[in-house]
Structures are given as C-alpha cells and as structure tokens.
Amino acid sequence: MPRRRAARRMVWTLVGALVVTAALAGVVAWQNTYALREEKVSLWHEGKLLQGVLALPERGDGPFGLVVFVHGDGPVDATHETFYRPMWEAFARAGYASLSFSKPGIGGSQGDWLAQSMEDRAEETRAAVAWARGRPDIDGRRIGLWGASQAGWVLPKVAARDPRLQFVIAVSPAVNWLRQGRYNLLAELDRDGATAEEKEAALRRRATTLRLLEREASYSEYRRAVGDVDAMTPARWSFVTRNYRSDATADLRAMGGTPVLLVLAGHDVNVDVAETEAVYREALPPTSLKITRYPGATHSLVDHDVERSQWRLTLTAVFAPRKLYADGFLDGQAAYVTGLGIRKGTA
Predict the structure, then answer these.
(1) What pTM, to 2 d.p., does this model score?
(2) Domain-ending residue, one of 187, 219, 243
C-alpha cells in the first residue's frame, strides 16, 4: 500500500507539472500573439535584395497609414527580434501599418550594414517609402518615419528630401557622433563606478582613436596604437571611419515644417537628452515639434527597473512583452499619429 500511495503521488505530481507547463505555454503563446497581419516583403535597392515585414492592421483592406521603421545601431532584423511587434500592434490599432526591412546582411537581406554610411541608410529608407507608395493598401498621404538612436542621423535626411512625409517619430535620437560618443563613454563609466584615473585613461584612449580617425588610419594602425580593441573589428573600424563626422543639425533645419515627435528617456546613458532637446528646439519650428519624456525609461524606452534586472527582463520579454516598454509609451505613439490627421498638400 505505501508503494501504491507513493506511485499515485508521483503520478499526480507529474500531472500537476504537465498542467502548469501547459498553462504557462498557453500564457506565453497568448502574450506573444498580436492583433496584426504580417506579410513578408522584399525590395531591390542598389542591386541588392532586402527582406522585410509589412505589419497590417488585423482587419480591413485599407488603404492604411504607414510607419516606416529605421533601425538604430547593430545587426537588426526586421522585427528587431520581436521587440518591434508591440509597437506595430499599437500603430495597427490606430489604423497604421508598419514596414521594416532587415539590415543588409541580416535576416536574409543582401549586403553588409557595416559597409553603409548614413547617406546610404537614408537612400535605403527613401526606397522603402517609394515602394510603399506603390501599394494599393497603403495611403500615400499618411506615411511617416519611426527611428531610434543611430536613426537620428537618418530620419532628418529623409524628411528633408521628402516633404510628402506626414511625420517623424525620433526615439532617443543622436545628434552629433563625436559628442554622443564622449557622453556615452563617461555616462557608462559613471554608471559602473569608475575611478577618476579610469576615466582619464578612457579619455586618453578616445583622444588617440580620434587622431587616428582624422588621419584615416588603417585598422592595423588603430590596433597597434590602442592595444585592447574590445569589439572594434576591422569592419566596425571601417564603419566608424565612414560615419564619425555625422551630425544631424543641418538636416533637421532642412526639414521645414514636418511634424516631429521627439521621445526622450530619463535614464539614457547613450544619448545626452538635454543636448538633443536643445538642438531639436533650435532647429525645428515650435509648431512642428512635440516632446514627450519618459523619466522611468532607458535609452531603448524599456522600463528602467525592468532592464536593470536580468531575470525581470527575461521574464517580462517572455510572459508580458508589451510591459517591457515604459508606461504610456506604446499608447503615446499611437495617439500621436491618430491626432495628426492628413496634412494639406500631400498626395
């Protein structure tokens, strides 16, 4: 009898574990299902095929407004490893589709994103907009751009050349490559509790790097001069050499009256939000600029308390991905595009 009772307990324990596992799997599936219709799309640009995703509202034939996504730094695929989907869903509920292409060399797209300049990225974005205007389910009068971080050097270029764009949403955008790099270096050192000596050493190394960039030194020269190169590969050195002079100020001024939503985070160690706000205010007409601040957010607009805890970040990403973002961020972007209406003079 004791053996039978033990066996029954083991069976029920296994049954309970299976029930819990199934329930958790159901929660994960539900939380990672979005009110969208995703279509895989492709675009030929400069002789290379780009692969992407067009995320349409769950119902209707359109034509829908469109948000074209412009990535930040790094090897980003079309969904940003699903990070974009909560935003796509928010835009879809506002009647907007979302369009995103994987960077060259990522997610099936041809080419190499590290071989691009910001000018290249701007022309690629313009090609995506032109492609979208040719679709009957997209309203060419209601197309705008969304971009984060490094996209701060791309968005103004595109908007300055395309007055038909209805809006730009700039999330934690950079303005000047060199000033942004110095700010990021010191902010991360402060966050990590670096000593004054460690900060001085880091700034000396940065000064050496800048001198090498200015004289267009090779990667081997850089490696000999700096020593420990961290994540600076030959391809990355080429990318930095091509782009380190980037500054968005002139392009911002050339944008004219294109409506801009500037989204700033309170815990941004990548971008100096005070400088960014000052430059945007100086360069853009006050009537075209709206600024939204999220004091509890990090550079990626993830909730700061969630991001600083690896276990919370992982669990939230799996079980409640919409909660990754700072409170109000998703609804705020959707409300912005909803409130714009259609600008006169667009077609």
Answers:
(1) 0.87
(2) 243
Rounded distance, CA 127 to CA 160, Å? 15
Structure tokens belonging to residue 332: 């705020």
Give yes or no: residues 223 and 261 share one domain. no
Cis peptide before 259 (omega within 30 of 0): no
Q: What domain range is 305 assigned to?
A: 36-176+246-340
How far is the C-alpha of 307 from the C-alpha of 161, rounded, in Å?
A: 37
Residue type, 167: F
Same structural domain, 57 and 104: yes
Strands 138-148 and 289-298: unpaired
Per-residue pLDDT tens over the stretch 274-328 = 999 999 999 999 999 999 999 999 999 998 888 877 877 778 777 778 888 999 9
Helices 310-319/2-31 angle, 10° precision = 80
Query: Residue 223's CB: how many other CB atoms inside 10 A?
Result: 15
The verdict on residue 4 lying in a domain is no
Residue 191 buriedness (CB in 10 A; 0-12 / 13-18 / 19+): exposed
- 54: domain CATH number is 3.40.50.1820
